[in-house]
Write a sequence for this structure.
């Protein structure tokens, strides 16, 4: 029943009220923290892990984060876990960063005492005993990494009043994987770059981003593929700089990338207006008519429709419906909607139904 | 101006009021005749050819066929000739049957004295100095070869009162190409067989048809490709049998093929309903939304829509609009509509516009 509450709520980030929300879907900040005096999660036994869960939950509840939003890993079946992954509340299974020799750090993996505390509206969450004891994350609409960072920073402050986090004067916050050491901050945006892909400039953009310390990944972050021309762009280094500098650097670099995307979109409309409009309208036409639809096809056609909204070629569906479809058309959500073990054809039919509902007032 | 009259009229065969018009687009009969005492067209000089044109036109006019419906080959530019080909009023250029060593027998080829007399509503036409001196043809809606044959037979009778046709007691009517000798009758239907194509049974059908003396060809007959799953099926032999027997044999064989198509369509809807409906609706969705559309893409998507109408999966557009689009989306018609030398992109844009107009009330 509680899972249903999550399932039917609309996460705040889906509302396209953030800056540049025609291009940037969401911004995310995440702090990695470990409780002082406990072994790292992958080295700790179940008793210790259970103790960490209790400590964090008690502290969070005391700090005003309702513990009824906590979902224990062992209470979730595979479809339930998938729902959290699909809402970007927990990590993608088998992420490339999995600490060597450790159990799958994602909550979607093997069971041991761990879980996720989800705040109202999903604007923030705390993962307990994933790769680190705590992963405090905040997700907000559009291009607003500073807001996301300020949110996690405030949660960090409130928890720090009762929990002592592992900290070294020399290195800063200590983390299970050395890439997160220092600030423990990972800041990222999910950005839609269809014009850069269409003009074949996306690969160049990814290389340039790498040269200035950014990491470009797929839709579900580490270990996932790029689908629907949606890229996750994040900082690589969390050490040796104040948090605010890390956030500002990401903002500066991402602003350049967003600017390239806008220029590529202008170029496309100048040089190939017919073909671009054709692609956009056909994609909307297929989504408005298909009776069987795979996830990847939805992501790709949805990308063209999103571009159409950005270019004002289309005025419908609204961006919020499109954001919502990004999540509810994923397999875990569809399985939950159908309330039974659905086969792939059942899901493809249901996905097509959901999409057509949202495309009913789209004019072709 | 006269070309415009043809251009804007709706040929009678487009009305889906003939038998089986959900599957059979049109039925055609054609008689090959030569005027006694004149060399065959490919052996005759311009003076003789001109004489034949005048003789036939005078006779036809006297028999009640208004000579103002005559279009001289030399008065038509390439786009004008294409319009007649696209309306199935004259043969496809470079037809495989071209008599060895003769000029292109199609009116769409090189200029010499020849032309086509078109009857009101395009229900019938007389080609003068194509491969034979006369090709009397009639085209009617749906599966009605007997009606088409009776029409050409009646025209033949009326012309025979004033013109003596080359005839041998032994062989029957004499023709420029021996395959037409005897009755000079070619009877054919344009039939839409998407289900046989989808179930991979079309090739087998074509082989079987060959074994019982039928010829299966593409959309524009001899020398043309199969596009949009539309096949031309005709008799192979015109010698040694009364006309009515030839027509009845074609009707019998075609009835079997139509029956196979119906059974294949039933099987598809039973075994793969989701996929078939998906294909139909997507095709309608793309035609309702595309801004750039090639001829072959229109033919293929239009085939799925035609199947959708047959299966009652779609109720719009009406079959007549679909028949009309088959003709007016062809390059010659588009060129004439645009009234200037249009490039390929211009035509693809105009084609998409025309199709969207006809799909405006299609519900997806």
């Amino acid at each position: 029943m509680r899972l249903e509450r999550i399932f039917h709520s609309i996460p705040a980030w889906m509302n396209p009220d953030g800056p540049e929300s025609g291009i940037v879907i969401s911004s995310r900040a995440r702090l990695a923290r470990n409780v002082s005096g406990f072994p790292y999660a992958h080295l700790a036994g179940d008793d210790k892990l259970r103790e960490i869960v209790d400590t964090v939950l008690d502290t969070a509840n005391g700090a005003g984060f309702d513990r009824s939003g906590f979902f224990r890993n062992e209470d979730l079946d595979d479809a339930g876990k998938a729902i959290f992954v699909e809402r970007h509340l927990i990590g993608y299974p088998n992420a490339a960063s999995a600490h060597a020799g450790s159990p799958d750090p994602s909550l979607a993996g093997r069971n041991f005492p761990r879980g996720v505390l989800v705040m109202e509206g999903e604007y923030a969450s705390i993962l307990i005993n994933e790769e680190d004891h705590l992963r405090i994350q905040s997700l907000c609409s559009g291009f607003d990494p500073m807001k996301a960072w300020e949110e996690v920073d405030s949660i960090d402050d409130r928890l720090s009043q009762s929990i002592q986090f592992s900290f070294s004067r020399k290195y800063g916050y200590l983390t299970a994987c050395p890439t997160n050491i220092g600030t423990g901050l990972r800041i990222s945006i999910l950005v839609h770059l269809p014009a850069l892909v269409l003009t074949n400039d996306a690969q160049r953009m990814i290389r340039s981003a790498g040269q200035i310390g950014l990491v470009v990944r797929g839709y579900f972050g580490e270990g996932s593929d790029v689908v629907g021309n949606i890229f996750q762009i994040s900082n690589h280094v969390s050490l040796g700089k104040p948090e605010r500098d890390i956030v500002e650097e990401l903002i500066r670099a991402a602003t350049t990338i967003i600017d390239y995307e806008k220029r590529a979109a202008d170029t496309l409309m100048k040089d190939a207006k017919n073909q671009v409009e054709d692609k956009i309208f056909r994609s909307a036409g297929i989504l408005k008519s298909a009776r069987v639809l795979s996830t990847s096809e939805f992501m790709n056609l949805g990308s063209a429709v999103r571009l159409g909204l950005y270019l004002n070629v289309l005025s419908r569906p609204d961006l919020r419906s499109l954001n919502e479809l990004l999540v509810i058309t994923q397999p875990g959500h569809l399985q939950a909607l159908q309330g039974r073990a659905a086969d792939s054809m059942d899901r493809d039919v249901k996905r097509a139904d959901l999409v057509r509902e949202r495309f009913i007032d789209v004019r072709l």
Notes: Residues 243-271 of chain A form the longest helix (29 residues). Chain A touches chain B at residues 274-275, 277-278, 281-282, 284-286, 288-292, 345, 349, 352, 356, 364 (CB under 8 Å). Confidence is low (pLDDT under 50) at residues 94-103 of chain A. The two ends of chain A are 40 Å apart (CA to CA).
